[in-house]
Amino acid sequence: EAQVTQNPRYLITVTGKKLTVTCSQNMNHEYMSWYRQDPGLGLRQIYYSMNVEVTDKGDVPEGYKVSRKEKRNFPLILESPSPNQTSLYFCASSSGNRYSNQPQHFGDGTRLSIL
Amino acid sequence: KQEVTQIPAALSVPEGENLVLNCSFTDSAIYNLQWFRQDPGKGLTSLLLIQSSQREQTSGRLNASLDKSSGRSTLYIAASQPGDSATYLCAVRPRGGSNYKLTFGKGTLLTVNP
């Protein structure tokens, strides 16, 4: 079954304690992306990756890092989390073919609470 | 900058009713438009994708239309059921560039009452 898997699904932690949210897809997709969803603001892109070792900033990258060492994995790293990063996070993937009209696939989300 | 608006923000209907959800976008230079469903505490499930060259797409009781020139899309749900209750999001992918970022609307919260 084609899927995007995020872990953990829920996390409560404290300010300043480094954390990593993992994302893995089994569809051999080149393109992967992270979004955060906040009430009243909708979904906003944090970072994206066009392929292995190719990453770039989205609209709200401050306070986040990513890496893409393998095609299937795209972890989101919060080096020093702060309360304003409390949010619902989604990982997405799709074909890297510019002309592809295949839908983007989303994970089930990770709810982070930073105290 | 692309902006996506969904109206209404919330909608409550009795079971069996046909309904229309609206989505508008400001920049018509899109590659495709995707409708998603989001259940509480869950991820985004893709419902329909309409290419910029298409006018509509259908899947079961769902029909999505696209009028790119006027910057509008609608999602029609026929014979609504309580299981259709969820938040519906539309998102557009820009034409060109190397980022396939989707710009989302804020969603319509649909409640279908038995």
The H-and-E topology of chain A, N to C, reads as EEEEEEEEEEE
Count the beta strands of chain B: 11
Q: What does the oligomeric state look like here?
A: heterodimer
Spans of chain B of at least 5 consecutive residues whose pLDDT stays below 50 are none
How do the SSEs of chain B run, as a string of H and E?
Answer: EEEEEEEEEEE
Largest interface: A-B, 25 and 24 residues
List keywords for this structure.
heterodimer; A: 115 residues; mainly beta; 7-stranded mixed β-sheet; 4-stranded antiparallel β-sheet; 0% helix; B: 114 residues; 6-stranded mixed β-sheet; 5-stranded antiparallel β-sheet; 58% strand
Question: How would you briefly describe this protein structure?
Answer:
Chain A is an all-beta fold.
Walk me through what this model shows:
The complex is a heterodimer of chains A (115) and B (114). Chain A has strands at residues 4-7, 10-13, 19-25, 31-38, 42-51, 54-57, 65-66, 76-78, 87-94, 105-106, 110-114. By secondary structure, chain A is an all-beta fold. In chain A, the strands form two sheets. In chain A, strands 2, 4, 5, 6, 9, 10 and 11 form a seven-stranded mixed sheet that branches. Chain A has a four-stranded antiparallel sheet with strand order 1-3-8-7, with no helix packed on it. In chain A, a hairpin with a 2-residue loop joins strand 5 (42-51) and strand 6 (54-57). Chain A is globular, with a radius of gyration of 13 Å. The N and C termini of chain A lie far apart (36 Å). In chain A, 37% of the residues are buried. By secondary structure, chain B is mostly beta strands. Helices cover 0% and strands 58% of the residues of chain B. Chain B is built from no helices and eleven strands. Chain B has strands at residues 4-7, 10-14, 19-25, 30-38, 44-51, 56-59, 62-67, 72-77, 86-94, 103-104, 108-113. In chain B, strands 2, 4, 5, 9, 10 and 11 form a six-stranded mixed sheet that branches. In chain B, strands 1-3-8-7-6 form a five-stranded antiparallel sheet, with no helix packed on it. The model of chain B has no long low-confidence stretch (mean pLDDT 94). Classes of the chains: A mainly beta (115), B mainly beta (114). At the A-B interface, strand 5, strand 9 and strand 10 of A face strand 4, strand 5 and strand 9 of B.
